[in-house]
Design goal:
The protein contains 14 helices and 20 strands. By secondary structure, the chain is of the alpha+beta class. The protein folds into 3 domains: 212 residues, FAD/NAD(P)-binding domain (3-Layer(bba) Sandwich); 93 residues, D-Amino Acid Oxidase, Chain A, domain 2 (2-Layer Sandwich); 44 residues, no CATH class. Strands 1, 2, 7, 8, 9, 10, 18 and 19 form an 8-stranded mixed sheet that branches. It has a 7-stranded mixed sheet with strand order 5-4-13-14-15-12-16. A hairpin with a 5-residue loop joins β9 and β10. α1 runs parallel beside α9. The longest helix has 22 residues. The protein is globular and about 60 Å long. The structure holds flavin-adenine dinucleotide. The site of flavin-adenine dinucleotide (FAD) has 37 residues, from α1, β8 and α9.
Length: 426
């Protein structure tokens, strides 16, 4: 087996979390290697950005590129009842600066992720695609690199001072370390596909995300993409979607279309393209953000139900935060796990805030309308959280929501596992 060393940072996975962390670390002069299993461009679900993705994209220097890109501009979100009646769209410019946060994008992930990975390359990151990480290399409890299989089937060892796990929902490290914990409540199933030529709303609403309700607190997403494509999926409890013994994704999808008239009508003019996809029981947390020589970023750290499209914002934000924390550790010559406690706490705070809102969304006693009818002064807080400004103090909001729905306690997860604690836990 051959080996390569001399890297400061090794990144497992070249998705948004990995590419953003890698780019910023290379910008600081560190030698960074990304190992990515696929060859980009590759397919990925998760196409709708939140307004507060602006900050990490700005930090990466990518706003101008996004503005020049063909990605559909998203100015608003709307909610639609099963009858087809749409709420007044919520326009981001009613609260945010028109030049920055008030407009975001709907992205085709194959193109968006390739843009991010190429940006990392341009910043000096070495990227090896079609290279699958198989296991960690350890010295004692410290992660010192990985063993990976190259495109040609050769096993190689790569060593670095720090390894970032950005492997997405595979959560490479958490699965192997037994750190992955299911969310107690958020166990939904999603079935989705794509349409061409489906109906779009007019003008500024053409790029809106639509969340369209079906019974049992299920919902459709409708995300207009460029190239006349629409991403459309349905999310609900598994037992609801598979009622009557229906199991095939296509059959589930076609049946649920009839449950929301807006979705049915918008898709009627279009043509379904490509496969129907299915994923199940997908919200999870991890016990630790990392240990000696290891840090988890993006979906590898946590995955939340996609109802409020928080995944990419959290992946990019955590990529930026991880890069800053690792850079500081490299400069200080100290990469002890404890250094990453602040990273984990900030990330968990944001996740917990979003999670509280997701729990409320699925509670049958709750609706945004009833809440704002009673507490109109809280509309701004709701908007901020929904837009991805998640590291704010929302105490008043949670107290008010608590009158209608269960507000979950913060989960006691995410802190780093220090060398000493690791020895005890093992
Ligand atoms: C049904 C659904 C709908 C969603 N909708 C939205 C949405 O509308 N908006 C939104 O913001 N988010 C959405 N998301 C979430 C979003 O897709 C993720 O949050 C986002 O992709 C996370 O980025 P990441 O870089 O952490 O992981 P990923 O984008 O998954 O990237 C991880 C990379 O690691 C690579 N990899 C994995 N294992 C290995 C290995 N062993 N060796 C080498 N490489 C490896 C993978 O090939 C992949 O390229 C949705 C998710 C789902 C499931």
């Amino acid at each position: 087996m051959t080996g390569t060393s001399g890297y400061e940072v090794l990144v497992i996975g070249g998705g948004p979390a990995g590419a953003s962390a890698a780019a910023l670390l290379a910008e600081q002069g560190h030698r960074v290697l990304v190992l990515e299993r696929e060859r980009f461009p590759r397919y990925h679900v998760g196409e709708s950005l939140l307004p507060f993705t602006y900050q990490p994209l700005a930090r990466l220097g990518l706003i101008e590129k996004m503005r020049r890109s063909p990605f559909v501009k998203k100015y608003s979100v709307q909610f639609v009842a099963p009858s087809g009646r749409a709420s007044q769209p919520f326009y981001f410019h009613t609260r945010y600066d028109r030049e920055t946060v008030a407009q975001t994008w709907q992205v085709l992930r194959s193109e968006f992720d390739l843009m991010l990975l190429n940006h990392a390359r341009q910043r000096g990151v070495e990227v090896r695609e079609e290279t699958e990480v198989l296991e960690f290399l350890r010295e004692g409890e410290r992660v010192v690199g990985v063993r990976a299989r190259t495109r040609g089937g050769e096993d190689r060892e790569y060593r670095a001072r720090m390894t970032l796990d950005c492997s997405g929902r595979e959560s490479f490290a958490a699965v192997r370390n037994g750190w992955r914990v299911k969310d107690p409540r958020l166990n939904k199933v999603a079935v989705w596909t794509y349409y061409e030529g489906a109906k779009r709303d007019e003008g500024i609403d053409a790029g809106a995300t639509t969340v369209a309700f079906i019974p049992e607190k299920g919902w459709f997403w409708y995300i207009p993409l460029h190239g006349d494509r629409v991403s459309v999926g349905v999310v609900a409890e598994g037992k609801y979607l598979s009622r009557g013994g229906v199991k095939a994704p296509e059959a589930i999808f076609q049946r649920e279309l009839g449950e929301n008239l807006w979705i049915k009508e918008h898709l009627a003019a279009g043509r379904q393209v490509g496969p129907h996809y299915l994923t199940s029981e997908y919200s999870y947390h991890v016990r630790h953000c990392g240990s000696e020589g290891l840090l988890l970023v993006g979906d590898a750290f946590c995955f939340l139900d996609p109802v409020f499209s928080s995944g990419l914002m959290l992946a990019l934000k955590s990529g930026v935060m991880a890069a800053d924390a690792v850079h500081e550790g490299l400069v200080a010559g100290d990469l002890a796990p404890e250094r990453f406690a602040g990273y984990a706490a900030t990330l968990r705070q944001g996740i917990e805030n979003m999670r509280k809102l997701v729990y409320a969304f699925y509670n049958s006693n709750f609706s945004f309308r009833t809440l704002t009818d009673k507490y109109p002064e809280l509309a701004g807080d709701i908007t901020d959280c929904l837009s991805g400004d998640v590291n704010k103090d929302f105490t008043r909001l949670w107290a008010a929501i608590g009158e209608f729905a269960e507000v979950p306690e913060a989960l006691p997860y995410g802190g780093p596992l220090s060398g000493r604690a690791l020895a005890v836990e093992v």
